[in-house]
Amino acid sequence: MKKNNIITLTDDFIMHTYKRIPVVITRGKGIYLWDVNGKKYMDFLGARGAANTGYSNQDVIKAITAQAKKLILVTNDFYTKPQAELAQLLVKNSFADQVFFCNSGAEANEGAIKLSRLYSYKKYGQGRYVVVSAGNSFHGRTYGALSATAQKKYQTGFGPMVPGFRYVDFNDMDAMNAALGDDVCAVILEPVQGEGGVYPVSQDYIRFVREQTQGKDIILIMDEVQVGLGRTGRLFAYENYGISPDIVTIAKSIAGGMPMGAILALKKIAKFFDYGTHGTTFGGSPIASAAGIAAVKYIIGRKLPDKAKKLGIIALKRLLSLKQKYADKIKDIRGVGLVIGIEFYDNSLASQVFDECLKAGLIVNVTNGNIVRFLPPLVITENELNKGMDIFENSLKRITVRPHL
Ligand SMILES: Cc1ncc(COP(=O)(O)O)c(C=O)c1O
Question: Between vectors from CA 402 to CA 399 and to CA 405, what angle results, nearest 5°?
Fold first, then answer.
């Protein structure tokens, strides 16, 4: 089928919830994607953080192929080895004691919110159900996750939201302090606000939040759906801050591209998710779990977190010098490891950069209008990173500052 036919079919028969790039992708390998016409792209979007182990990772393919021949799915009415092994692997390498597997980031956050409310209800009775979340956050599109997402643009038209959510400014200790009343059961925060435009949590803030929540037996949920599993320079992003949360949610890169999410929690909380309280048909399926074991082992075995840290420093250094050189265009550079945001003075500059990069074979992402985001697969080499940055730098030469009317 020709490119234009595929685009027409998609536009005719699929709801228009995405602003799709007019490129039809047919295959991927490592950090590269190829379109239907054979054009090769370097991908700094990295499936929005879901491609940490790279496209067509051989370990993941082998695991999926072998498992598919044995058993793709059986319900959670039974025990399976891949699920048990993946849970053990995650627990061994984190703060957590137990895991609940689901299918996406939103679903992981949904479950984490339910679990937090249940913990509070069982321990303290009714009335302690408020979940505090941060302005500019993104936690997913389902109702609980959307209600935690403190951004009007995602909620407009879908009201009313789920009751019992309270929003505070991100990285504002006074606001958090004021919000933590007797009715609060949990705080949910992203270590780096990814969709919001790459805003890292500050060390002082997260330590303050941890201290306050611990003192009040309020659950601290870290939403590591986008930046977990190596991207920030540690396997889990919370490790960068010297704190230990109560619940961590992950998804995206956990299973090498297979749909999967997980809630990681301490036993004292996890124990309240007992028989009949929560469930899923597909969560932790043998095939996703087998892929998960391969992906997580690959991330740990190949030391991808260390690599993300090293390459992140190299990228930031170069970007900071570009900021000086193109001071009329670039407003700010932010990042931790290999989640990097380049904030432009306006949306037009970011969208021109996107177009120029795409033409030259580099896929970047624009988030929040004026922020170009890099989330490359963590299998990227230093050489590849530099090549991508060359394309990005060339795009800066071509874009023009348009007068504001
Ligand atoms: C921090 C964060 N939480 C939750 C989600 C939702 O994940 P999913 O799209 O898998 O539901 C995302 C997706 O971008 C995210 O970045």
Answer: 165
CATH number at residue 86: 3.40.640.10
| φ and ψ of 299, to 5 deg | -60, -45
Mean pLDDT of the chain: 97
Domain boundaries, position 266 = 58-301
Shared domain for 109 and 168, answered yes or no, is yes
Question: Residues near ligand 1 with C-beta < 6 Å?
Answer: 48, 104-106, 109, 138-140, 190, 194-195, 223, 225-226, 251
Where is 175: in which H helix or E strand? Answer: helix 173-179
User: Ligand 1, closest atom to CA 140?
Assistant: 6
Q: Which of the listed residues 267, 301, 335 is the one where a domain comes to its end?
A: 301
Does the pLDDT at position 108 exceed 80?
A: yes
Tokens 């297979």 appear where? 258
* 404: pLDDT strictly greater than 70: no
188/255 same-domain check: yes
Looking at the fold, whether 254 and 368 belong to one and the same domain comes out as no
Question: What's the predicted TM-score (pTM) here?
Answer: 0.98
pLDDT in tens, 268-287: 999 999 999 999 999 999 99
